[in-house]
């Protein structure tokens, strides 16, 4: 060990032991990347809920809003710019009440239904299977379809798979052709129900596990379309649900989902998206960090039954959930999105990266106009939220090798409670470039960081930053660039050692060559 390295390690260790606020010490092992960060960790979710589908993605072919076959061009472009890898549809709770045959054929002949979960509004089924798969083709992303286990039937789900993916002569493929689509689509990702412990049927884990086995049997692989079946997993810390599925379903599933939302206060009064004090900010981040414990504990159960990690853990609903914006339909879950949400996104994605050997799929809830949306629309207007920009910055991690880090980090403290002030994740891409994503959670203090890069002789560093003056700053249709990405000038390389200062409440991604 060189003298400089020794002093670096010693200073870090001492600060850690005595809890001193000083330079944070980060070490990145650039030549030890083993697991790949799947791009599918960066997935999104679109439900027939509020203005996610209608108004968000779908405006119809006759709309004056620029569209391609009824799908908004501005939204498609924005999502392609963040390299959206997969899109989950049609729910959520809506999935377990959805009957896909109502959403095919001539649009003016499709039956209407009531969306009982979300505002009791009329669903006219004008956006169905063909429209969703057209959307995914325009987005160049993989579709992820969630089947109806709660109120549907095995036959219905089995026929949906056949309708979409069978390349041959069959009742369902003939129907697809009659409806204008000659070639089958490739759809790999299928959810077998959603929240079957709750809105998806209020089942016990044993009952669902048995039902899963039955449904999954009749979801067939047609041709080379190999299905990746995602079982409806646990609600937050329901470890018994995971234990039961791992025991009874095992490798009949390729992934098991997990749902966890960050709710700052209580489910009855969740807190406002934009009006919160520092204590509520702290609680929001503390609750977000709980994702790390959840993923670790569910993974430990999975490790017992599947030590080779064949089955992925898929947190396919995550994000912040606040009270709806005043004056909006309570069933539409419309909320604004601030710099606080960007911090939540950065921290959560760093957690998923760090567990990428098991977490290989995830979906933030939801893409447009619902919960922690990356895009907000109002008729022809569109704005990109602070959360959007985190996904834009983190593209650098898609399919890159996770690099192990050690980090001795200052604490962010309030009312006697402490959390780490900085969250970090590092990866190496196929071209050998290293990216480090850093989130300074502390809303008051900048964080200086010394960083040692093992295994490379770094020649240059550049970076980009997302921050804003106030933690509750947001982007609106009139002021869309209040929270925007800028060039980061605060990192320096000297003799192979990297040093930087992260402004308070910021998300930074560095690129090192
Ligand atoms: O994302 C909103 C809802 O939250 C989903 O429909 C459901 O799965 C979850 O409870």
Key attributes of the depicted protein:
8-stranded parallel beta sheet; 513 residues; 26% strand; alpha/beta; single chain; 6-stranded antiparallel beta sheet
Could you explain how this protein is built, in words?
This protein is of the alpha/beta class and about 525 residues long. About 25% of the residues lie in helices and about 25% in strands. Helix 4 crosses helix 5 and helix 6 packs across helix 7. The longest helix has 28 residues. The two termini are about 25 Å apart. Bound molecules: alpha-L-arabinofuranose. The site of alpha-L-arabinofuranose (AHR) has 10 residues, from loops. Alpha-L-arabinofuranose binds next to loops.
Bound molecules: alpha-L-arabinofuranose
- Main beta-sheet strand count, sense and barrel state: 8 strands, parallel
Coarse morphology = globular
Structural class: alpha/beta
Poorly predicted ranges (pLDDT <50, ≥5 residues)?
6-21
Looking across the biggest beta sheet, what order are the strands in?
A: 12-11-10-9-8-5-2-13
Strand content: 25-35%
- For the secondary structure, the number of strands is 27
Distance from first to last alpha carbon: 24 Å
Helix content: 25-40%
Determine the number of helices (DSSP H or I, runs of at least 4 residues): 10
Radius of gyration: 23 Å
Instruction: Give the rounded overall mean pLDDT.
Output: 95
């Amino acid at each position: 060990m060189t003298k400089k390295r020794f002093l670096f390690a010693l200073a870090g260790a001492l600060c850690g032991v005595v809890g001193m606020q000083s330079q944070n010490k980060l070490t990145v092992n650039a030549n030890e990347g083993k697991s790949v960060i799947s791009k599918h960790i960066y997935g999104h979710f679109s439900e027939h809920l509020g203005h996610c589908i209608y108004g968000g993605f779908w405006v119809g072919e006759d709309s004056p809003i620029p569209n391609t076959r009824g799908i908004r061009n501005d939204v498609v472009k924005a999502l392609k710019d963040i390299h959206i890898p997969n899109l989950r549809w049609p729910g959520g709770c809506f999935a377990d009440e959805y009957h896909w045959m109502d959403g095919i054929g001539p649009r003016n002949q499709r039956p209407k239904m009531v969306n009982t979960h979300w505002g009791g509004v009329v669903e006219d089924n004008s956006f169905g299977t063909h429209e969703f798969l057209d959307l995914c083709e325009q987005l160049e992303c993989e579709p992820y379809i969630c089947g109806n286990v709660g109120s549907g039937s095995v036959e219905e789900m089995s026929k949906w798979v056949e309708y979409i993916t069978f390349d041959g002569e069959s009742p369902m493929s003939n129907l697809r052709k009659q409806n204008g689509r000659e070639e089958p689509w490739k759809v790999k990702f299928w959810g077998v129900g959603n929240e079957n412990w709750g809105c998806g049927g209020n089942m016990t884990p044993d009952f669902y596990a048995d039902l899963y086995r039955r449904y999954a049997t009749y979801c067939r692989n047609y041709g080379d379309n190999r299905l990746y079946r995602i079982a409806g997993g646990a609600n937050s810390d329901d470890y018994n649900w995971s234990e039961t599925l791992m025991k009874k379903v095992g490798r009949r599933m390729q992934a098991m989902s997990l749902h966890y939302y960050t709710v700052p206060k209580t489910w009855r009064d969740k807190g406002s998206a934009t009006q919160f004090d520092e204590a509520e900010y702290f609680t929001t981040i503390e609750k977000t960090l709980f994702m790390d414990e959840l993923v670790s504990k569910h993974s430990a159960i999975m490790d017992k039954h599947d030590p080779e990690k064949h089955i992925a853990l898929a947190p396919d609903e995550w994000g912040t959930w606040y009270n709806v914006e005043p004056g909006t339909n309570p069933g539409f879950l419309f909320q604004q999105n601030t710099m606080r949400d960007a911090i939540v996104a950065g921290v959560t994605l760093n957690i998923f990266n760090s567990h990428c050997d098991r977490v290989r799929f995830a979906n933030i809830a939801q893409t447009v106009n619902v919960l922690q949306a990356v895009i907000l629309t109002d008729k022809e207007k569109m704005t990109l939220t602070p959360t959007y920009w985190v996904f834009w910055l983190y593209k650098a991690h898609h399919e890159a090798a996770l690099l192990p880090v050690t980090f001795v980090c200052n604490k962010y403290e309030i009312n006697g409670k402490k959390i780490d002030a900085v969250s970090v994740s590092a990866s190496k891409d196929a071209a050998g470039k290293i990216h480090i994503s850093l989130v300074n959670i502390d809303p008051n203090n900048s964080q200086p960081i010394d960083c040692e890069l093992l295994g490379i002789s770094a020649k240059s560093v550049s970076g980009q930053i997302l921050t804003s003056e106030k933690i509750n700053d947001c982007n609106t249709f009139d002021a869309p660039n209040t929270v925007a990405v800028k060039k980061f000038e605060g990192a320096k390389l000297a003799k192979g050692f990297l040093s930087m200062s992260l402004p308070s409440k910021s998300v930074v991604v560095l690129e090192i060559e």
